[in-house]
Amino acid sequence: MTYVLLAALCSVLVSVLLKLARRFDIDVGQAVAWNYVATTALTLLALQPPLEPLRHADAPWVALVALGLLLPTIFLALAASVRHAGIVRSDAAQRLSLLIPLLAAFTLFGQPADGAKLLGCALGLLALACMVWRGDRVDGQGGPARWGWPLAVFAGFGLIDVLFKRVAAAGLPLGSSLLAVFAFALVVAFAIQFARRARFTLRSALGGLLLGLCNFANILFYLRAHRALPDQPALVFASMNLGVVALGALVGVALFKERLGRINALGLLLALAAIALLAWA
After folding, report:
1. Neighbouring C-beta atoms of residue 56, cutoff 10 Å
2. Where are the transmembrane segments (predicted)?
3. 215 vs 208: CA distance, rounded Å
4. How many CA atoms lie within 13 A of 86 on its CB side?
5. Which one-letter DSSP state was computed for residue 139?
6. H helix intervals, 108-173
7. Are 71 and 185 spatial neighbours (Cβ–Cβ below 8 Å)?
8. Cβ pair 281, 237 in contact under 8 A
9. How far apart are CA 77 and CA 83, in angstroms?
């Protein structure tokens, strides 16, 4: 379980770095772009993915290109969510995005839905509604930013998960797909920065490389956790997602003094319950 803990820690560190970016005068857009320089290089070095599968005629290029467009865009949405809504809500929304591929499996791909899965989905949607609730206007932040960005994170990461499942179903090795997606995302992220005429700085570049290191480490430790526990995928899945939500809540409340209303706190508990139920359904 050490790998699961490290993966969850790295996932939360990504949110922490995004939260601290403005404090250290780091341009988030530039950091996201340099992040993909790091993840692309580390994928080549650590995973050594084969390139031959990418040359096959049946390679799922539509899904790969879509992922390359979505990843940097949703990363920027995650940064905005962390800034406006906080780490607690953002990490919970990101992990609850697992509901979207599940609902897609039930409605689009004909997967049978039993009572436990349906209950888990219902709890997850209720948790999301509670997490973005703004009736008590905690943190002094009302308005659309506080609930809109977590919803964007929820929808975006859910769509990314669906696309990765389509890539996996096509038989493309994970390392090869990650390399292609990160390379596309790198081009898109830098194109966004050139379009906004960003003034590149060494500080933002270093912050982005550190962000990419944490981002890739999250993926690598999660893969190693599955490899270490090959017969217990549900345990790894549940531990990872529950760990990120719980650790994100601890970091957000303890270190960044994020305040949760009663309904928000209820949403956090419902999110934990929904993830646990779906993992073992």
Report:
1. 11
2. 59-80, 92-110, 116-135, 147-164, 170-192, 204-223, 235-256, 263-280
3. 10
4. 26
5. G
6. 115-131, 144-169
7. yes
8. no
9. 10
Distances (CA, A) of 174 to 43, 164, 249, 271: 10, 9, 30, 28
Q: Rounded CA gap, 157 and 239, in Å?
A: 19
d(CA 141, CA 242): 27
CB count within 10 Å of CB 58 equals 9
Cβ-contact 110, 98 below 8 angstroms: no
Amino acid residing at 254: A
CA 41 to chain centre: 20
Tens of pLDDT along the chain (281 residues)?
Answer: 799 999 999 999 999 999 999 999 999 999 999 999 999 999 999 999 999 999 998 999 999 999 999 999 999 999 999 999 999 999 999 999 989 988 887 776 667 778 888 899 999 999 999 988 765 444 444 567 778 999 999 999 999 999 998 898 899 999 999 999 999 999 999 999 999 999 999 999 999 999 999 999 999 999 999 888 888 887 888 899 999 999 999 999 999 999 888 898 999 999 999 999 888 76
152 C-beta neighbours (distance < 10 Å), count: 18
**Residue 127 is encoded by which pair of tokens?**
């948790």
Query: Can you read off the two tokens belonging to residue 107?
Result: 């409605």
Helix (H, G, I), strand (E, B) or coil at 59: coil
The secondary structure of 207-236 as a DSSP string is HHHHHHHHHHHHHHHHHHHHHHSTT-HHHH
DSSP structural state of residue 170? T
For helices 233-254 and 87-96, the axis angle rounded to 10 degrees is 160
Cα angle value 37/10/190 (rounded, 5°)? 20
- Extract the tokens encoding 208: 């982005």
